[in-house]
């Protein structure tokens, strides 16, 4: 019979996350060049500098008339309209005293002109004469380089680019940028009790719900799942599954096989790893969540219980995936106020799935659905997780608790 790993040393959630931080460099990501238009939500790997001043020409801030301020000393002033400059048009000579040119917002302000008078404060006397009757405090001209000078940083290294950033880079015709490669993931779900989709339901068997969840959670967090395998509780099958993806993935996530029973296969695999990060946590559910580095690959062994799997992913896997991409976790850690008494006690900190709402200046938190680790009824509805501190006392209503607001909810 397959025997369990010899010893587990429990550490706290914070200690486990620090271990991840301290070791993430050994599995850091390489970079690649990609088209700017394909870079939404990718992480920039180097500072991007402005290749030129922006704007590159003096631009009008309003629809109106460009002219010389010296012609406006005595109002009303009548000026000859010598041209029309719509957006995108040029003007082939400087303006001189006594002249004005019709101009559109964003249009090129010709040399010689040093003010754009808004259309609303002008009056056409005839087809080629405009009258100005009001003094304007601003010149309404955006000067060359007003927004960016050549060499200014457009987007800094380690920025997660969004559509606004793509717009900015496109305005400078930056067509290609350097980004960190997406973490590549291999998922191995283990369990002799797992049915394949479409199989007949029989006693003792269940359908694989954790695998699809892990796959989508990885994708949501910027990773590429390149391998997805379901195997029975068999050391040789696990060894073969790992060898199939080892060297092809940055991260391998296993689900199941980490319990303290006779078939804790993942925990035993961790014994032979280059660096055991942790194999026991002072938390419920998911105390046997395991992490280690083997052959420069980061392994996570998540619990086969859905609630524990969900919790372990957000506290450790999501945390690591974001760090690998030089980003902070999207789980916003804060303090929440408990909306109802919680009576269960535990020797370890208990992480509950819940929902939150804003009540004035406070975040109110509460349970949603059951808190059993095998219960799936709140995985869809949970918008946060919060920590019930270990101890023998009940947790009263109004308690202020460590809370993680979940992303993508």
How does this structure look, described?
It is a single chain. By secondary structure, the protein is α/β, with parallel strands linked by helices. It is built from six helices and 26 strands. The protein has helices spanning 13-23, 163-171, 210-220, 235-245, 265-271, 306-324; strands at residues 31-35, 48-49, 59-60, 64-67, 77-85, 99-103, 115-118, 122-126, 129-132, 141-142, 153-155, 176-180, 184-190, 194-195, 206-207, 224-231, 251-255, 275-278, 283-284, 290-294, 297-302, 332-338, 349-359, 362-367, 384-388, 400-405. A six-stranded mixed sheet has the order 7-4-6-5-9-8, with no helix packed on it. The protein has a six-stranded mixed sheet with strand order 16-13-17-21-20-18, with helices on both faces. The longest helix is centred in the C-terminal third of the chain and has 19 residues, at 306-324. It is elongated. Mean pLDDT is 92; it is low at 1-5.
Poorly predicted tracts of residues: 1-5
What share of residues are in beta strands?
25-35%
Write down the overall geometry: elongated
What gap, in angstroms, lies between the N and C termini? 43 Å
Tally of individual helices: 6
Strand order of the largest sheet: 7-4-6-5-9-8
Number of strands: 26
Proportion of helical residues: 10-25%
Coarse structural class: alpha/beta
Pathway: Cofactor biosynthesis; molybdopterin biosynthesis
EC number: 2.10.1.1
InterPro entries: MoaB/Mog-like_dom_sf, MoaB/Mog_dom, MoeA-like, MoeA_C_domain_IV_sf, MoeA_linker/N, MoeA_linker/N_sf
Keywords: Magnesium, Metal-binding, Molybdenum, Molybdenum cofactor biosynthesis, Transferase
């Amino acid at each position: 019979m397959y025997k369990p790993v010899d010893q587990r040393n429990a550490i706290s959630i914070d200690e486990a996350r620090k271990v991840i931080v301290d070791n993430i460099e050994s599995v850091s990501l390489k970079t690649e060049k990609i088209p700017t238009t394909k870079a939404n939500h990718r992480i920039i790997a180097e500072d991007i500098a402005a290749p030129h001043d922006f704007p590159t020409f003096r631009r009008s801030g309003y629809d109106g008339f460009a002219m010389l301020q010296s012609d406006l000393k005595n109002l009303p002033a009548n000026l000859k309209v010598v041209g029309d400059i719509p957006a995108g048009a040029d003007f082939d000579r400087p303006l001189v005293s006594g002249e004005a040119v019709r101009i559109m917002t964003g249009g090129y302000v010709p040399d010689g002109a040093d003010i754009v008078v808004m259309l609303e404060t002008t009056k056409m006397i005839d087809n080629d004469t405009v009258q100005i009757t009001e003094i304007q405090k601003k010149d309404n001209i955006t000067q060359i380089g007003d927004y960016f000078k050549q060499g200014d940083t457009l987007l800094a290294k380690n920025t997660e680019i969004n559509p606004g950033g793509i717009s900015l880079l496109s305005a400078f015709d930056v067509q290609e940028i350097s980004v960190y490669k997406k973490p590549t993931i291999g998922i191995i779900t283990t369990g002799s009790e797992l049915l394949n989709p479409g199989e007949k339901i029989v006693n003792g068997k269940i359908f694989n719900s954790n695998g699809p969840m892990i796959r989508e959670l990885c994708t949501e967090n910027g990773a590429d799942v390149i391998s997805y395998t379901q195997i029975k509780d068999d050391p040789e099958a696990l060894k073969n599954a790992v060898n199939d993806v080892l060297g092809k993935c940055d991260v391998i996530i296993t689900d199941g096989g980490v319990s303290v029973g006779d078939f804790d296969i993942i925990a035993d695999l961790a014994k032979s790893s280059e660096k055991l990060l942790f194999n026991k946590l002072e938390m419920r559910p998911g105390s046997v969540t395991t992490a280690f580095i083997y052959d420069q690959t980061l392994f996570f062994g998540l619990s086969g219980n859905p609630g524990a799997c969900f919790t372990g992913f957000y506290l450790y896997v999501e945390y690591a995936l974001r760090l690998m991409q030089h980003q902070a976790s999207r789980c916003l850690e804060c303090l929440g106020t408990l909306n109802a008494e919680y009576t269960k006690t535990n020797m370890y900190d208990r992480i509950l799935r819940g929902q939150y709402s804003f009540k004035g200046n406070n975040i109110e938190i509460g349970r949603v659905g059951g808190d059993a680790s095998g219960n799936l009824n709140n995985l869809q509805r949970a918008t946060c997780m919060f920590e019930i501190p270990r101890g023998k006392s009940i947790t009263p209503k109004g308690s202020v608790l460590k809370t993680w607001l979940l992303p993508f909810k």
